Hints:
Layout: H1 14-21, H2 25-54, H3 58-66, H4 68-101, H5 107-114, H6 116-119, H7 122-133, H8 140-145, H9 154-164, H10 166-180, H11 183-190, H12 195-223, H13 227-233, H14 243-252, H15 257-285
Helix pairs in contact: 2-15, 3-15, 4-9, 4-10, 4-12, 4-14, 7-9, 7-13, 9-13, 10-12, 11-12, 12-15, 14-15
Amino acid sequence: MADVLLAPAPAKSSTNAVSRARPTAASLGLRTVALLYVGILVLLPVIVIFYRTFQPGLTEVLDALREPDAQHAFQVSAIVAGSAVLINTVFGVAVALLLARYRFPGRRLLSAFIDLPVAVSPIVVGLALVLVFGPTGWFGPFLERNGVQVIAAKPGMVLATAFVSLPLVVRAVVPVLEQTGLDQEQAAASLGADAFARFRRITIPAIRVALTYGVVLTIARCIGEYGAVLVVSNNIEGETETAPQRINNLIETEQDYNSAYAITLVLMLIAFAAILVSAWIRRRKGI
């Protein structure tokens, strides 16, 4: 019987072992700078908010959150954010399918426009909506004659919020669609499956995780939107006042910092929850 020579297992690189055991001065310096940067800009303000929120006591925090104006502001934020998330989920998937599945003139231009909210200030977005849908705008007089009010009402707030959060679902879904390809859909079509059946049984399962990731990020973005919504809502207390606007009004108008900290804490916890969920999705599925 011929002897079988087993090649020895490759030894681990001594360089890698040394680099893991003994961090270099450069790596330690970079870690220190990164920790200081994150600590000063993120961690320190978060700690201060937690401290100032609960400094008067838990009863004061709960009382501030039970105020009718605060509860109404949370309701308006939920309605506006929920509507914007629904709009961006539906149209985001449609635009992602269009960009990933088809080649047409102007495709790159459309893709660039999708990223426009990232580069444009939210204040500019709100001003543009006022110029288009305001009382003296392009469509404002026509809409008002037909009993539709956009500016200083929830429709305008939803449009502004949907615009600033537009890229999140699209950019989460497009890479998955491009990686999946068309093989499965073409096979299903050859077996007689119609477009809706292919979308329901092939496309949706393929993009489910990426879509969830995009929706979570969209929720976090919509809940905290301030600039664009401030311009189009006119910041009417008890009507179009959202939670971020309520915080600003409590600080500037009423000088009630304790109530402002309480509302800030709620919004911050929602943002933290969204970040944790999105991080978990990315770690499990490698998005």
